[in-house]
Amino acid sequence: MRNRTPLIALLATLVIAAAGCGGATVTADAPMPPDRLQPYAVFDRMPSGVAVAGDRVFVSFPRWVEPGAFTVAELVDGAPVAWPNAAANDLDAGPHTLHSVNGIHADNHGRLWVLDNGRVDLAPAMPGAPKLVVYDIATGDELFRHTFDAALAPPDGSFLNDVVVSEDHGFAYITDSGIGGTPGLIVYEIAADRAWRALDGHASVRPDPSDVMTIDGEVVQLHRPDGAVPWRVAVNAIALSQDDATLFYGPMTSRTLYGVPTVVLRDPDATPDARAEAVFAAADKPITDGIASLDGAVWFTDCESEAVRVWVEGDEPGLAPPEFTDERMSFPVAIEPTADALWVTSNQLHRMPLIRAGDDGRTPPFYLWRIPFDR
User: Fold this and answer.
1) DSSP of 210-251, one letter per residue?
2) What confidence score (pLDDT) does residue 323 get?
3) C-alpha distances in angstroms, 78 versus 39, 95, 234, 267?
4) Selection from 324, 290, 323, 306 nearest residue 216 by Cα
5) For a Cys-Cys bond, which of 100, 120, 159, 315 suits 179, CB 3.0-4.6 Å?
6) Distance between CA atoms of residues 200 and 271, nearest Å
């Protein structure tokens, strides 16, 4: 039986007081006290991914609306500074630089993994721009990269969204939301520097056609020339189980967290049927942009409720109440648990002009939140 003592202690820190002891847990109906959820950093551009390495914090800023001077930054004295430098973020220098980054990941060996989908304003990527670049955090030097060819990441049909890394097995797993194309997963074998697609078009990577995203009592609509339709997003969130044996993932617009054994993903010769048969429904989840795992728990951002939820591996699949919620955290995106805190970005994504036919409903600032586990 798994030893869950550290996890239980960690989860307990997010409880104001046990209900049976005359207190109340933090729920959507009982927002966290204002002094508990405070922004760590405030931005005038929309953040997306967050990665924490010791006392260093990195944030990605996809070039969705404002092109900006950088798409990856390190926070220095609370302000974002182009990382590893301005030249690496130069949008006009060609496909080798960083164009538009969502997913970033700091591993246990001092490396920052940067996933560039190249989709500036969601326009087709420049050939050669979709790539995974790995940097030495201590020096800022590029260690290696993999450029995805058009067969793996079509410039006008893929959207490389998020990345997790299994250092034990030497693989990276990527979600491709397939904007304009087919959603699926990409598996990258690090030592061999090769990649392949998995679960292309499978039901588990597609948005649930019967579901909609509702925020502030209104269905979020995508406004197109032929009319407005509910905004639905394919596979996005991704995390590894505590033992790296299962990859958890799910579409943003779906209330199911799926799992698939990593052994079947790591086999480049596995058939599509073998992979499809291995997929299982692991748990219920909210409409979520980002998930992350720590000590056997999977944390979810809840886009509809301005909240964060958690599910413990092995527990029943039902959706747990929010661990914390705050109306200022409009559209929580990425989530990063560290030993002493949760890190969450929020960016009002549902109010973007790209979704609202040019109508910009965003109200800056945008935030990076740090929620300490200890009280």
Assistant:
1) T---EETTEE-EEEETTEEEE----EEEEEE-TTSSEEEEEE
2) 85
3) 10, 30, 33, 43
4) 306
5) 159
6) 12
Give the pair of three-digit tokens for residue 55. Answer: 């006392």
- How many Å apart are CA 30 and CA 209, to the nearest integer? 32
Q: Give the C-alpha distances (Å, rounded to integers) separating 66 from 80, 115, 353.
A: 15, 19, 11
Residue 6 or residue 214, greater confidence: 214
Query: Which top CATH class is 5-372?
Result: mainly beta
Residue whose C-alpha is closest to residue 191's, from 166, 154, 159? 166
Q: Which stretches within 50-141 are classed as H helix?
A: none
> How much is the average pLDDT of 164-184?
96
**pLDDT tens-place string over residues 272-297:** 999 999 999 999 999 999 999 999 99
Q: How many C-beta atoms lie closer than 10 Å to residue 17's C-beta? A: 10
Half-sphere exposure of 102 (CA within 13 A, CB side): 27
How far is the C-alpha of 293 from the C-alpha of 18, rounded, in Å? Answer: 24
From the list 352, 354, 185, the residue with the least C-alpha distance to 260 is 185
Q: Cβ atoms within 10 A of the Cβ of 197, count?
A: 19
State the Cα–Cα distance between residues 297 and 294, nearest whole angstrom: 5
Structure pTM? 0.90
Q: 43 φ, ψ to 5°?
A: -130, 155
Domain ranges of the chain: 5-372
Cβ 200 vs Cβ 184: under 8 Å? yes
Confidence bin at 5 (pLDDT 50/70/90): very low
Cα–Cα dist 329/236, whole Å = 20
Q: Which long-range contacts (CB under 8 A, 24 or more apart) does 148-153 make?
A: 148/186, 148/195, 152/186, 152/195, 152/196, 152/197, 153/117, 153/125, 153/186
The sign of the dihedral angle between the CA atoms of 72, 74, 75, 77 is negative
10 Å Cβ neighbour count for 12? 11
CA–CA separation, 267 and 189 (whole Å)? 10
In eight-state DSSP terms, residue 319 is P
pLDDT at 371 exceeding the cut of 50: yes
